[in-house]
Specification:
The complex is a heterodimer of chains A (326) and B (338).
Chain A lengths: L2 E3 H15 L3 E5 L15 H5 L4 E3 L4 H13 L3 E5 L10 H8 L2 H4 L9 E5 L15 H5 L5 E4 L3 H13 L4 E5 L7 E3 L13 E4 L4 E5 L3 H14 L4 E5 L2 E3 L3 H11 L2 E4 L8 H13 L8 E3 L10 H7 L3 H11 L4
Parallel strand pairs in A: 2-3, 2-4, 4-5, 5-7, 6-7, 10-11, 10-13, 13-14
Antiparallel strand pairs in A: 1-8, 6-12, 9-11
Helix pairs in contact in A: 1-7, 3-4, 8-12, 9-10
Chain B lengths: L21 H26 L14 H10 L5 E4 L4 H7 L3 H8 L23 E4 L6 H15 L5 E6 L6 H12 L4 E7 L2 E2 L2 E2 L19 E6 L3 H18 L3 E6 L17 H8 L3 H12 L4 H24 L17
Parallel strand pairs in B: 1-2, 1-3, 3-4, 4-8, 7-8
Antiparallel strand pairs in B: 5-6
Helix pairs in contact in B: 1-2, 1-3, 1-9, 1-10, 2-3, 2-7, 4-10, 5-6
The chains are: A alpha/beta (326), B alpha/beta (338).
């Protein structure tokens, strides 16, 4: 199986789907002539032309809204945010239009659209450019939220997202676009709402997604050196959540850590904890812990940023704590 | 197209230019009156506590919706605001379904999911019904984008109030429509007040069409005093959008005779102002034209009015007798089931 980067898995997913269905188009800042701020759309303009690879000015609420309006007419837009931090200025379009229109029109209209781009902290970008947006979007009925961490998942889930008849928020990672992994040459898709066990173990369950996945895997590696074997569950889809995959593991390990990029307060991590205590309370041998950003705006200074971010070492400490290892 | 001022014609009693056909004027009168009577019935039901939430009436602006219906072609779309009952009635939605929606009933236009501010009726070309001010402008531009992408020949008519002129999405939607040369007519229904704030306290320059060149839009501006003139000039705007694939901005100077919503007593304007605008009420003018110019009798128009009142009373009865949505309805249509 060939190894490719995540950015190319994303590009290939878009290219294959665009070749399959001419109603699909890509729209966003620098997606065409510049070939994508992170080169996720390299070569697509040349292949599909300006009609279907549409460069926009800096106007997120404008082009998110145009995408929604086009989707209501039967087109299949892929809207790229240069970073999900910029989706904040399009939030109303996603919250009040994309997520509501199917419901509020009693099913007369639907919004088959994908909003995709990098999410969460990269490196020393300061507080406005380092945020994780899944809590905002996963909060909203009417949206599907996906976060990917490998080329295989990125390609298979993006193809599914593009084909889905609903609005999908598809979260990538600037830090991980160059991460390589095996991707089959033949056609495949991955269903929405199915988690993936990225490492197996019976001592502690580590639930993670997106940019948290490599951190969790590294933490599990460190734990294994101390004889603690972790089940690392990559949720992949945050809404709807594969609760059963989490519960199955926790019922086996009786201990859980949720590791993710993002603030602790009121987020997807808290949602995972709530589901574990609600449905597997009797199986727990320790409180469920979260390893995530500290509850502060992201500082720019490198030493401070490193203190705020979840690290394998912090992951290991939490794993040891729930396993009652001194 | 040229920008003209918003002054009224010299004499509201001059019917030569825009009241040429007795049959057409009678039809226009009937359609405007249907909207007005619907709105009056809705207001009454609201006062009686039968309708909750917000209720924004279209009384005074009916000619705009009726004119739109006259020029609409099959592939066209109408996108409107939270003041949208008039468009639904004019475009052909059943008054019973509209009233039932206000009542939150299962038989409502969108089965009780939307209420007054969220009317959608796809088969009658009504594509909303948007209640976050200005956020439908990019969506409407997206409909026009799709028309151009597919080559379906459709024009999108995007209505917005003067209250939507300061907010960002309007600017972004207009920018993209102009940049990409989309077939869309942006119609500013300037009813002079954004809730209680007059235009002069909302935006720095009150001739809205002065914005048009910066967005590469053609433009037109006039006071709405008849259906015929409104249809003629909106039609000319649509022709440009359709044939030249470019956006057009039309500012319609109009007036709502009721408050912003049912809870607004309208204390920010005086009686003289309202009375002055009443002289130009297209409905009242058409009534006078039918009698003074076309020679119809007051009795004939009274009969017509009675029939419309009957139709709207039936709509109220239908709404009152309709069932509420089933409890399980709240789980429907959140996601498309694939």
């Amino acid at each position: 199986m060939p190894e490719i980067q995540i950015r190319h898995a994303i590009r290939d997913a878009m290219a294959e789907e665009m070749a399959r269905d001419e109603n699909i188009f890509l729209m966003g800042e620098e997606v065409g002539h510049y070939n994508g701020a992170y080169k996720c759309s390299e070569g697509l303009l040349e292949r599909f032309g300006e009609k279907r690879v549409v460069d926009t000015p800096i106007a997120e609420t404008g082009f998110a809204g145009v995408g929604i309006g086009a989707a209501m007419c039967g087109l299949r837009p892929i809207i790229e945010f240069m970073t999900f931090n910029f989706s904040a200025v399009a939030f109303d379009q996603i919250l009040n239009n994309a997520a509501k229109i199917h419901h509020m029109t009693n099913g007369q209209f639907s919004v088959p659209i994908v909003f995709r781009g990098p999410n969460a902290a990269a490196h020393m970008l300061g507080s406005t450019h380092s945020q994780a947006f899944e809590p905002f979007y996963a909060h909203v009925p009417g949206l599907i939220v996906i976060a990917v961490a490998t080329p295989y998942d990125a390609k298979g889930l993006l193809k599914t997202a593009i084909r889905d008849p609903n609005p999908v928020v598809f979260l990538e990672s600037e830090l991980m676009y160059s991460v390589k992994g095996e991707v089959p040459e033949e056609e495949y898709t991955i269903p929405i709402g199915v988690a993936d066990t990225k490492r197996s173990g019976d001592d502690v369950t580590v639930i993670t997604w997106g940019q948290g996945v490599p951190v969790a895997l590294k933490a599990a590696e460190l734990a294994a050196e101390e004889g603690i074997e972790c089940d690392v569950i990559d949720l992949r889809t945050l809404r709807p959540m594969d609760t059963e995959a989490v519960l199955e593991s926790v019922r086996r390990t009786n201990r859980a850590v949720v590791l993710f990029h993002g603030w602790p307060y009121g987020g997807v991590g808290g949602e995972v904890v709530a589901r574990i205590q609600e449905f597997a309370f009797d199986h727990l041998d320790a409180p469920v812990l979260r390893v995530c950003y500290e509850d502060v705006p992201m500082p720019y200074a490198e030493n401070l940023e490193n203190l705020v971010l979840p690290t394998p070492e912090r992951g290991l400490a939490a794993i040891r704590e729930v396993a009652y290892v001194d | 197209m040229t920008t003209s001022n918003d002054a009224p014609p010299a004499d509201p009693g001059n019917y030569e230019a825009y009241f040429k056909s007795k049959d057409a004027d009678l039809r226009r009168y009937r359609e405007m009156l249907r909207i007005r009577r619907f709105e009056e019935m809705a207001a009454r039901a609201y006062t009686r506590g039968k309708i909750s939430g917000f209720l924004h009436l279209y009384i005074g602006q009916e000619a705009i919706a009726v004119a739109t219906k006259e020029i609409l072609q099959p592939a066209d779309r109408v996108v409107s605001t939270y003041r949208t009952h008039g468009f639904a009635i004019a475009l052909g939605s059943s008054p019973g379904a509209c009233m039932a929606e206000l009542y939150g009933k299962a038989t409502g236009l969108v089965a009780g999911t939307g209420g007054s501010m969220h009317f959608f009726d796809r088969k009658n070309q009504l594509w909303g019904g948007y209640a976050i001010v200005g956020n439908h402008v990019p969506v409407a531009a997206g409909h026009a984008f799709a028309s151009k992408y597919k080559g379906d020949g459709g024009v999108t008519f995007c209505y917005l109030g003067d209250g939507a002129l300061a907010i960002g999405p309007t600017h972004e939607g207009w920018t993209l429509a102009g940049l990409w040369k989309l077939p869309i007519v942006f119609v500013v229904e300037n009813n002079r007040y954004s809730m209680g704030t007059p235009l002069a306290r909302s935006i720095p320059v009150t001739d809205v069409t002065l914005k048009a060149p910066g967005y590469n839009m053609a433009s037109d501006r006039f006071r709405v005093t008849s259906v015929a003139e409104t249809a003629e000039r909106l039609g000319a705007a649509a022709k440009i959008a359709r044939e030249e694939n470019r956006p057009v901005l039309v500012e319609l100077v109009t007036y709502r005779f009721r408050g912003h919503s049912m809870s607004d007593p309208g204390k920010y304007r005086n009686k003289e102002e309202v009375e002055e605008w009443r002289r130009w009420d297209p409905l009242e003018r058409t009534y006078r034209a039918l009698i003074d110019h076309h020679g119809l009798s007051e009795e004939a128009l009274e009969e017509l009015d009675d029939a419309i009142v009957d139709e709207m009373e039936e709509a109220v009865t239908f709404a009152e007798e309709s069932p509420q949505p089933a409890p399980e309805a709240r789980f429907r249509n959140i996601l498309v089931e694939s």
